[in-house]
Design a protein that fits this description.
6% strand, 4 strands, two-stranded antiparallel sheet, 2 domains, single chain, globular
Length: 295
């Protein structure tokens, strides 16, 4: 609301200072443009907040799949030699998100050597995007020194990605920042589906994959606020995935609240219903999307 008030005051000053009808017209058009831009920005902020509430970070995704019985498999992550193939800012951003998810995946399973390899890939891509401060020499040394301290390493990784995010937004490259988020989400879901045993699938792991229905919807809504060709391509891919996720049903249930030793626990609520075939279909679709991104 303060933004609207500020623009309204600015408009009054511009109009008051104008000396002719032409100047008034230009001022009105300028103010209208600024108001529309402000509305778009506020809508995007609201969408972004929804995304961050519903989309787990790469570390959280790796943790969720680990808890659901997923194991580490170095053969399913993005090969480190692929990093040299990403020349455009769109591909660099998407794959910075991909390697960030791979890094979290390796870190949660305490794969120190592979974590370092993915950090180097992240540094190369961040440097390519002009964010040299994210993975500078001092940061890389701290990461290497904390390689055997999973929690400390994750803090350093998160800080590096926040620096990247701030740099993008500060330079009017918000679309690249959201592509990093998209790349991380896509890779995280892919890693979960790639570890699913199709002969004897884990119910918990399938549930985790199904739960991404909500975060996918939020991510698509956020991406759709950007008028960019690279973002639009990703939106098209994710909308195809949405078609499959829409096959997952939602049973409405009553929310329950129980209390034990002064601690309240919320249960019940909506339940997702699905057949294993739908999860396998999701697995095939996300693999296709992910392979197009890393190729």
């Amino acid at each position: 609301m303060k933004k609207y008030i500020y623009l309204a005051i600015s408009a009054s000053i511009i109009v008051a200072c104008g000396g002719n009808e032409s100047a008034d017209s230009v001022a009105d058009e300028t103010v209208e443009s600024k108001l529309l831009e402000t509305e778009e920005t506020e809508a995007r902020v609201e969408k972004a907040q929804m995304v961050f509430r519903t989309i787990p970070s790469p570390l959280e995704t790796a943790s969720l799949f680990q808890e659901a019985g997923s194991g580490y498999n170095s053969g399913i992550t993005n090969p480190v030699e692929n990093v040299k193939n990403y020349a455009t800012s769109v591909h660099q951003s998407l794959n910075l998100g991909v390697y960030g998810a791979d890094l979290s995946f390796a870190n949660i399973f305490e794969q120190s050597q592979e974590s370092m390899l993915y950090m180097n890939c992240a540094k190369i891509l961040a440097d390519g995007l002009g964010v040299t401060s994210a993975f500078d020499i001092a940061t890389m040394e701290r990461m290497e020194n904390n390689m055997n301290n999973r929690d400390s390493l994750m803090v350093l990784i998160n800080d590096a990605f926040w620096i990247t995010d701030a740099h993008m937004k500060g330079n009017g490259q918000d679309h690249l920042s959201v592509l990093i988020i998209a790349g991380g989400w896509i890779e995280g879901l892919y890693l979960g589906t790639a570890t699913l045993d199709q002969n004897k699938p884990s119910k918990d792991l399938m549930q985790r994959i199904a739960d991404q229905k909500y975060s996918l919807n939020s991510l698509v809504e956020l991406l759709e606020t950007y008028d960019n060709e690279g973002v639009a391509e990703v939106v098209g891919q994710l909308k195809e995935l949405q078609i499959i996720y829409n096959k997952i049903g939602i049973e409405t249930g009553e929310t329950t609240v129980s209390e034990s030793e002064g601690v309240a626990t919320i249960g019940g609520g909506n339940t997702l219903t699905f057949d294993p075939e739908i999860i396998f279909e999701i697995s095939n679709a996300i693999q296709k999307i992910r392979n197009e991104i890393i190729s």
